[in-house]
Design a protein that fits this description.
Elements (H helix, E strand, L loop, with lengths): L2 H8 L3 H13 L4 E4 L5 E4 L12 H13 L6 H14 L2 H11 L12 H13 L1 E8 L5 E14 L2 E8 L4 E6 L3 E10 L24
Antiparallel strand pairs: 1-2, 3-4, 3-7, 4-5, 5-6
């Protein structure tokens, strides 16, 4: 299947498709690629993932975490990862996990469009300037070029913290208020997380909770 077709199906850029598939191929996933006319990506016949051992509670914990954080950055990729894991656990564990999952409810409010989220996620990962159309609290709509620095969750909302070239300073943009976003060809100029300032007392990078 071509990268262009995958990009249309998942509503992301061709660059994102190629980057993610190349990363999967490099990690040892059974994916092959062939360049040029008539080329594309495919799964190697007979390819398989290594066995994964989870308890029903661990499986439901993954499902609950992804469902509750459906508006988080890269949530679509996280959900796809969980589905891959559930597809290879043994049927008995999956049956118990499905039964337990019916006892966990999540209220999922609307989230920004996938196209917007895909663009800002790509801009962050690739460190490229984003062009966004933003609706401020006072209702004023502006188009700005911003350099993504970090994603932050506070008060139940996700924000894109970025260097705003229009205001010449660091700004917090509520992701839900970004109406359009596109990735430009311009690279970010190197603004760092330290420029954002001191994080709240209980704030931490997501990697800090994985030890």
């Amino acid at each position: 299947m071509s990268a262009e077709r995958l990009a249309r199906e998942f509503e992301v850029s061709v660059r994102t498709v190629k980057r993610d598939l190349d990363a999967l191929e490099s990690s040892g996933a059974p994916i092959w690629s062939r360049p040029g006319p008539g080329g594309g990506y495919g799964l190697a016949e007979g390819g398989a993932l290594p066995p994964i051992t989870l308890s029903p509670s661990q499986a439901v914990a993954l499902m609950a975490a992804v469902s509750a954080a459906h508006d988080a950055p890269y949530a679509d990729l996280a959900a796809a990862g969980v589905r891959k894991i559930l597809a290879v656990i043994d049927p008995r564990t999956r049956e118990k996990a499905d039964a337990l999952a019916d006892r966990v409810w999540v209220d999922a409010p609307p989230v920004p469009s996938r196209a917007v989220r895909s663009a800002i996620e790509e801009g962050m990962a690739e460190q490229r300037v984003l062009r966004i159309r933003y609706s401020a609290r006072d209702g004023v709509m502006t188009t700005r070029d911003v350099e993504p620095v970090l994603f932050a969750s506070t008060g139940g909302r996700w924000y894109l913290v970025a260097w705003c070239r229009l205001r010449d300073g660091m700004r917090w943009f509520a992701v839900s208020s970004i109406e359009r976003a596109s990735v430009t060809r311009a690279s970010c100029t190197g603004h760092t997380v330290d420029e954002v300032g001191e994080p709240p007392a209980n704030a931490r990078a997501v990697g800090g909770g994985m030890d």
